[in-house]
From TrEMBL:
It comes from Pseudoalteromonas phenolica. Residues 1-28 are annotated as: Disordered. InterPro entries: CopG (IPR002145). One of its GO terms (biological process) is regulation of DNA-templated transcription. This is LexA regulated protein. Signal peptide: none annotated. It holds the Pfam family RHH_1.
Length: 92
């Protein structure tokens, strides 16, 4: 049986053929990789003495914070931390 280069239904004929793209470097599925990465990030933050705070804001406020942070060349979380520190300092 001759193999046709356009036939991709018979995988066994093409198992030795190199495929384009980056080779798989991590044996874990992407879903598990993301969980491991998140867990490691939380551990790094904890080691640096950081605590996690989550809250929901409107998309307009989110965009305004993003724009302001980008204008000041800092991260959005650093901007929010600065705003909160200023507010706390003014209330004392």
């Amino acid at each position: 049986m001759a193999k046709s280069e356009t036939d991709r239904t018979t995988i066994d004929l093409f198992e030795n053929e190199k495929r384009p793209g980056r080779p798989k470097t991590n044996p874990l599925p992407r879903e598990v990789q993301l969980k491991v990465n998140k867990r490691n990030q939380i551990k790094r933050d904890k080691a640096r003495g950081l605590k996690r705070i989550e809250f929901k804001v409107s998309s307009e406020l989110y965009q305004a914070l993003s724009d302001m942070a980008q204008a000041q060349n800092i991260s959005r979380s650093a901007l929010i931390e600065t705003i909160l520190q200023e507010k706390l300092a003014n209330n004392r």
